[in-house]
What does this fold into?
Amino acid sequence: MLILTPSDFSVAPASGPTALLDWATSSDGQLVLDHGHCAASLLPRDDDVVLVLPLRAISWHRLALPKVASAKLRAVLDGLLEERVLSDTGELHYALEPGGRSGQTVWVAACNKAWLQSWLQALEAAGRPVARIAPALWPLPASALTTPEHPASPTLHWAHDEGNQVWLASASPLGVRCTPLREGGHSTFGESAFGALAAATGTPPTDPWAADPQTTRWLADPAAASLAERTLDQRFEPVPRPVWLLQCAQSDWNLAQFDLSLSSGARRGQRLKQQLRRWRSAPAWRPARWGFVALLAVQLVGLNVAAWSERSSLDAKQQAMRQTLQQGFPQVALVLDAPLQMRRELTRLQQASGTLSAGDLETMLGALTQAAPGDLPVPTVLGYTPGEGRFSGWRASEDQVRALQQSLERSGWRARFDGNELTLQPTER
It folds into this structure.
């Protein structure tokens, strides 16, 4: 998976293959294999490319959508957002939250369509077509960090450097906002980090964004951590930009919707690859993976035990047959195929005593007489070798001979009719 984002947000269109991007690669969606900063034409090749849009490129709107057909949803969004956005709604691209549909209250992401299309075209021209579009930050669900003991609204802050300016991006169930941080921005509301955040963002200390510390996370790009900590008097957990990009790619958000949407088959393929990657590497699936390995190991052990048991049973039966052969016919010193050797010895005994065996010509002629349906077909040419009789020159039609063949087979003989010759053998020789 190749995850990339424009190095600096600007409303100007992408400058083709020379456009600069930050990128990271991952084979399992959990660990960053490599990362860098280069032009689009120099990016590593990968079949799964995720474009992460910068924070300031997207505006977020909470809308109650009426129940309308999918074909009319874009027009409905234009009408609902007309009074909320500064741009012409025809210039915007929209995307609904994962699982969002008409008839629900959903989050809607909006960005400049021409700007987004210019980046998609630049990457397409560089041979890195985008499979999915993800935001760099998105509104948090109300249950993301909330616990029964701390029902306060969860909040995530991320300090990062963009365009020679440090920004503090904040996400909560109220939405997403991005505020510049500057030296000397300490709070006059008190010593707490929430008061400092209020001073930095120009909001009162009772702002719901200043949530319970138990449900608030403070993250920062290492390059911006020092300034953010000095400004807000708050300890930030460092998160390198490649790791942040990887976390963005793991989200369920996909902004490739409406006229920028992929085919349904491509979307199913993306979901399948994402789910497979999560199952293979996500810590939450570790018990399932170990369970699968244990089940597979049990099955292999069970199959080997069953095979050993069957082999032991078969060896015991073969040993019993060898003992029976050698007890009945002591003159047989070497046993290679006990059933076959026993039949041959029995045949010899029958011949020595004058008893007819199944392979004798008289027995075969008797079988022909008994199996003949109606009028007896008569062969004029007889051929015999021990255990096999050949009859040809039939004074009967082919249908009569074939009926005789079928009757012999039902009686337990091996009968084969080829041309004008009927070959007859006992079932077991």
User: Anything to note?
Assistant: DSSP finds ten helices and 17 strands in the chain. Residues 112 and 324 are 90 Å apart (CA to CA). Residues 283-349 form one domain.
